[in-house]
From TrEMBL:
This is Outer membrane protein beta-barrel domain-containing protein. InterPro entries: OMP/PagP_B-barrel. It is found in: Cell outer membrane. GO terms for cellular component: cell outer membrane. Residues 1-32 form the signal peptide. It comes from Nitrosomonas communis.
Length: 303
C-alpha cells in the first residue's frame, strides 16, 4: 500500500513538473512573439512616418509651384492689361489720325454738268440786231428767254470752315456755261454785202448766245448728309456775247454771280441737284446789258 502511494506521488510530481515546464516554455515563446510583433509594428510606423513626410514634402513643393504659377499668371495678366491699354491708345490715335485725314486730306471733289432755263433782264441788241448805228433792216431785237448748258468743277477746301463751323464745307467752284436766247432777224449788217439795201426784205437769221465763265466760293451745309443745301455768297463772272455789240466787239463783261441750290446723293458718289444763279454786270457795256439769271438742274460726280 505504502509502495503504491509512493509510486502515485512520484507520478504526480512528474506530471506537475512537466506541466510547469510546458507553461514556462509557452510563456517564453509568447513573449518572444510579442517582442517580434512590436518590432515589426514599430518598423511599419517608421515607414508610414517616412511616407507621410515624403507626401508632406511633395505637397509643399506643389504649393510652392502653385504659388509661383500664380505669380506668373498674375504677371501675365498685368502684361495683358498693359498691352490692352497700349492697343487702346494706338486705336485712339488711329481714330484721331483718320479723323484728321478725313478733315484735311480725304476731301471730296466734284464734277458737275448743268442745264436749264436762262433769262436776260433786257432784250439783246447789237451791231447785227437792233442797232442805233445802222438803223435799217429788220431791226429785230434778241429775246429774253432761252436755255443753257454747262459744266463745272468743285474743289473741296475744308469740311469745317477751318475749324470755325463744323459740318460746313467750303468748295472753290470753277464753272462755264453756254446760253442761247434763240434766233433773231437781223438788220442790214446781218445780210450779205450785195443785199444791204434790201435788208428789211431779205434778213438773215442771227443766233443770240452768250458764254459765261465764273469762279466762286460755294458753302455747303450738313456735311455727311445725303441732302446738302448750299449758297454762293458772291463770285466773279465773265460774259462774252454773240453777236457783237454796237462797237462791233465780242466784249467780255465782268460781273458778280450769286447762287443757291441743293443736291442729293442718289447712289455712291452720284448726285442730283437744282440751282438758281443771278448774274449782275452793273449796267450796259457798249450798249448791251446782259444781267440775268439761270435756273435748272445738274448731275454731280464725286471723286
Amino acid at each position: 500500500m505504502k509502495q503504491f502511494r509512493h509510486k502515485t506521488g512520484v507520478t504526480s510530481l512528474a506530471v506537475s513538473s512537466f506541466i510547469i515546464a510546458l507553461a514556462t516554455t509557452g510563456s517564453t515563446q509568447a513573449l518572444a512573439h510579442d517582442r517580434t510583433s512590436t518590432g515589426a509594428l514599430e518598423q511599419q510606423i517608421k515607414q508610414l512616418e517616412s511616407q507621410l513626410k515624403a507626401i508632406r514634402d511633395e505637397l509643399n513643393q506643389v504649393k510652392s509651384k502653385a504659388a509661383q504659377d500664380e505669380q506668373e499668371i498674375k504677371k501675365v495678366k498685368e502684361e495683358i492689361v498693359l498691352e490692352d491699354q497700349e492697343i487702346k491708345k494706338v486705336e485712339e490715335k488711329v481714330v484721331e489720325l483718320e479723323e484728321f485725314e478725313h478733315k484735311h486730306h480725304n476731301i471730296s471733289h466734284r464734277l458737275f454738268f448743268r442745264g436749264g432755263y436762262a433769262h436776260n433782264l433786257q432784250e439783246r441788241n447789237g451791231a447785227s440786231l437792233q442797232s442805233n448805228v445802222v438803223p435799217i433792216g429788220a431791226q429785230d431785237a434778241g429775246g429774253n428767254d432761252g436755255w443753257y448748258v454747262g459744266a463745272g468743277f468743285d474743289f473741296s477746301l475744308t469740311k469745317d470752315v477751318w475749324g470755325f463751323l463744323p459740318n460746313t464745307e467750303i468748295f472753290a467752284e470753277l464753272m462755264f456755261e453756254y446760253k442761247r436766247f434763240g434766233h433773231s432777224q437781223g438788220n442790214a449788217l446781218a445780210n450779205a454785202p450785195s443785199q444791204l439795201a434790201g435788208g428789211a426784205f431779205n434778213p438773215r437769221s442771227v443766233t443770240i448766245s452768250q458764254f459765261t465763265l465764273s469762279a466762286a466760293p460755294k458753302i455747303k451745309f450738313m456735311e455727311g448728309s445725303n441732302f446738302r443745301p448750299w449758297i454762293i455768297p458772291a463770285g466773279l463772272s465773265m460774259h462774252v456775247v454773240s453777236p457783237a455789240t454796237e462797237s462791233v466787239t465780242y466784249v467780255a463783261n465782268p460781273g458778280i454771280m450769286f447762287g443757291a441750290g441743293a443736291d442729293y446723293r442718289i447712289w455712291k458718289n452720284f448726285y442730283l441737284g437744282v440751282d438758281a444763279r443771278y448774274h449782275e454786270v452793273f449796267g450796259k457795256f457798249d450798249g448791251v446789258n446782259i444781267s440775268g439769271l439761270t435756273a435748272g438742274g445738274y448731275l454731280g460726280i464725286g471723286f
